[in-house]
Design a protein that fits this description.
single chain; mainly alpha; 122 residues; two-stranded parallel sheet
């Protein structure tokens, strides 16, 4: 799956819908492997820790919040062993236009809270 293809765009739509659904249910995190399995069930091949997955997650956040004003959907995807997002979440979260402040724990906790709050209304 390559960025810019129909296959990628369809997988991105699926990622966004899965993460929105999680956000609406109180911003419950989902492990990478479970997200990959859910995508596979929907017909999209996106291995948990390689290939298109990091791009799909970053693009999901960009599509939902292109100007950085909304919480980042990618905050919901965590490593199974630690329950924390990978470094691939924190790098974009600190870049423009997001520029999220705080150490990793504060940044991630705040993002999860904002997701729960924002999507409770949708």
């Amino acid at each position: 799956m390559h960025k810019g293809t129909l296959e990628y765009e369809q997988a991105l739509d699926a990622v966004i819908e899965i993460l929105r659904s999680r956000a609406r249910r109180g911003a419950v995190p989902i492990p990478y492997g479970d997200l990959s399995s859910e995508l596979a069930r929907l017909g999209h091949h996106a291995p948990a820790h390689e290939g298109a997955m990091p791009y799909l997650l970053e693009d999901a956040s960009v599509r939902e919040s292109p100007d950085g004003s909304l919480p980042l959907l990618s905050a919901l995807v965590v490593l199974k062993d630690s329950g924390w997002p990978s470094g691939g979440f924190f790098k974009p979260a600190r870049r423009s236009p997001y520029k999220r402040p705080g150490d990793d724990m504060v940044l991630w906790t705040r993002e999860i809270e904002k997701l729960a709050e924002h999507y409770a209304d949708h």
